[in-house]
Amino acid sequence: MTLFVGFMCTGRGRGLEIKDCDRKDGQGDSSVGRSVREKRQAGCRVGKPSVGSEWEMQNKKSAFRQKKCGQSFSERSGMCNFVPGKRTFNNNRVMVNYKDLGLVNTREMFKRAINGGYAIPAFNYNNMEQLQAIIKAAADKKSPVILQVSKGARNYANQTLLRYMAEGAVEYAKELGCHHPEIVLHLDHGDSFELCKSCVDMGFSSVMIDGSHLPYDENVALTKKVVEYAHQFDVTVEGELGVLAGVEDEVVAEHHTYTRPEEVVDFVTKTGCDSLAISIGTSHGAYKFKPEQCHVDPATGRLVPPPLAFDVLDGVMKELPGFPIVLHGSSSVPQEEVDTINKYGGALKAAVGIPEEELRKAAKSAVCKITIDSDSRLAMTAAVRLVLTDKPAEFDPRKYLGPAREEMKKLYMHKCEKVLGSAGKA
Fold first, then answer.
1. Which residues are catalytic?
2. Predicted local confidence at residue 229, as pLDDT
3. Given a cut of 90, is residue 300 above it in pLDDT?
4. pTM > 0.70: yes or no
5. Which of 265, 331, 387, 417 is an S-S bond match for 374, by CB 3.0 to 4.6 Å?
């Protein structure tokens, strides 16, 4: 039996056909000297197939389908991007499971914090230096930590880069000696179902849906919708009741509204949320209070803000004993950082934050998560201004972002150890 192989080269690639040139009587043709004409008469392909042959027609059909469709079925269905253990979508996007990134959700973390009388630090990050400082501080103090990403941070840094940065943070923590890092990637103040869903799909282990600006029933409905989606993937959800005043990224409110303790049981029951952010007088941003809301400390001449409404917190804890409570807008606005900024060209007037002793008191209760953002911004800005003032010819970003990173790390370590009590809990 003789086999002949015919090749056809076109602009789209190579075609290949193998033909068994058997006689109809079943006797294999072993004639080496058989003529090309006889072989063609027997149906064998020799060299380039003739125009109109079955093989050429099949190749033309394939080329037509490629031109018509552009992609194969597997490419169009997203199977070309299939990754074991991860969900695939028809639009070629891959759903990322946070557990594959080494992250954890907040469920067990919060339970231990409530029982242990401390709070988990939730630090916002937008860039590499902030993230490095957070992880280094958490590793040095052996503290669990929540990496918070706001809607503004996603728009600024790109959601894909932020997700890979979080994955890298887990590996970085291991390099620093944390064999089992407790790191949460959390969406801060999500304002829509679509945003929360996108974060769940991109590997976030926790999301916040902030419907506090909506009428109560709409807040319940929106929070419940997010919970139902997120819980399919073991992603924890934070809801919010009450409104915090202040400005931070896209979160803007002129006045605060305290959480009503009589609503919390109904809200948590109907939504199924895993933790609840409440309003007891904290505010977003560095300008948390107007001067007329404060009094002046005669010893220092600095503004002192009004005390937090711990009676509201007590009322919430009475209605929801042992349930995880969250405080937002909890930066203390360190006055030494404000002074440095103003000394070197800044103009932060009447910037005042939450006294750290009040945060310590809250951390010993059911408040198991306290968010801090503005303080790190102040520390970073103060360090950058100081370097550029002392060295006006400096233009290497590492020379001023490096010191900024170090100042933020010191701040984060202080918060973990001296304010929230999370040091040594990881």
1. 188
2. 98
3. no
4. yes
5. 331
